[in-house]
UniProtKB/TrEMBL annotation:
GO terms for cellular component: cytosol. GO terms for molecular function: fatty acyl-CoA hydrolase activity. Residues 30-107 form the Acyl-CoA thioesterase-like N-terminal HotDog domain. The lineage of its organism: Bacteria, Pseudomonadati, Pseudomonadota, Gammaproteobacteria, Moraxellales. It comes from Acinetobacter indicus CIP 110367. This is Acyl-CoA thioesterase 2.
């Protein structure tokens, strides 16, 4: 596997400390705080270690920012062992306090009613520039003190459908879309549903919250803005592969009371495979002037 893909797999593969207790490493992916997608993916993986069924839904709350310099302990509570559904509660603990909590529900696939909305029409990923190319096109806008971290390679490949310059945001429609996949195929010995779902959870936190900023002409880099994920829900509808292109289509429906509500859908080969919902804090603050 590509080195970045291998690092991502290792990030989402936890160490078992004892029954129902796991430890995950942390990585500096977005700045001083742990990337929300890392905690989502690790928590889902911890829960998946306690059952042989695939997840079908996850509901989470981000309580405190995580420390990128310390590991995270995941405690799994086996709430329910049903014939149709298995329920797990996961607490992520760091420095003695709970920084994140989620409920995960698992269910075996079964036949039933089948319907989905139509996939939106966008250019194919091969027709789009990747994120690295787009970053190079705006490198002159990136402050020198953050240029090295901003231009480093991500652990996933992203090709935005409607890119914008986060250093010069303009009011736009509250929608955003990109294609996303791992840099290389998942190795055969690690190729399991639980890992694909954990990586999709990792994917799901990329840019979703910032969709609500677009109509206001703001970006996550705006100096007047305080932003953070509050909660996150994810539904797994159909099987998918994270090493093949997935279209992540996002929209925001409202911003109010310093919060924005965002929805996302992941598509693969014409199939709606995942849906997401996230409310984020988008609070404007006064800028101190000399």
């Amino acid at each position: 596997m590509n080195a970045l893909t291998q690092e991502l797999v290792e990030l989402l593969s936890l160490e078992k400390l004892e029954e129902n207790i796991y430890r995950g490493i942390s990585r500096n992916l977005v700045g001083k705080r742990v990337f929300g997608g890392q905690v989502l993916g690790q928590a889902l993986r911890a829960a998946s270690y306690t059952t042989d069924r695939p997840a079908h839904s996850l509901h989470a709350y981000f309580l405190f920012g995580g420390d990128v310099n310390a590991p995270i302990i995941y405690e799994v509570d086996r709430i329910r062992e049903g014939k149709s559904f298995v329920s797990r509660q996961v607490r992520a603990i760091q420095h003695g306090r709970t920084i994140f909590m989620c409920m995960v529900s698992f269910a075996a696939p079964e036949e039933g009613l089948n319907y989905q909305i139509s996939e939106p029409e966008y250019p194919a990923p091969e027709q789009l520039k990747n994120e690295a190319e787009l970053v190079q096109s705006i490198v002159e806008f990136i402050p020198k003190n953050v240029r090295a971290s901003f231009t480093r390679d991500r652990h996933v490949e992203i090709r935005p459908v409607n890119p914008s310059n986060p250093f010069q945001p303009q009011p736009e429609a509250p929608s955003y879309a990109h294609y996303i996949r791992t840099h290389s195929p998942i190795a055969a010995e690690q190729d399991e549903i639980a890992l694909h779902q954990a990586i999709a959870a990792f994917y799901s936190d990329f840019t979703l919250m910032t969709t609500a900023l677009r109509p206001h002409g703001l970006s996550y880099l705006s100096p007047s803005l305080q932003c953070a994920s509050i909660d996150h829900a994810m539904y797994f509808h159909k099987p998918f592969r994270v090493d093949d292109w997935m279209l992540y289509d996002m929209e925001a429906t409202i911003s109010n009371s310093s919060r924005g509500l965002n929805f996302g859908r992941m598509w693969q080969n014409g199939e709606l495979v995942c849906s997401t919902t996230q409310e984020g804090l988008i609070r404007l603050r006064e800028i101190e002037t000399q």
